[in-house]
Amino acid sequence: MTRSIRPDAVLVQAVIAGALSFAHLHDIAEAAGQHGWKAWAYPISVDLLLVAAWRRLRILRASGAPTRAAWTWFAVALAASLGANVATAGLLDLADVPDWLRILVAGWPALAFLGGTLLAHTPTTPAEPEPLNVVEPVTVPAESTPAPEPQPVAVDAPEPVPALPAPAPPVEDVPPALVDHARKLAAAHHTATGNRIDADTLRTRLGVPASVADAIAAQLT
Question: Residue 201's Cα: distance from chain center in Å?
Answer without folding.
Answer: 60
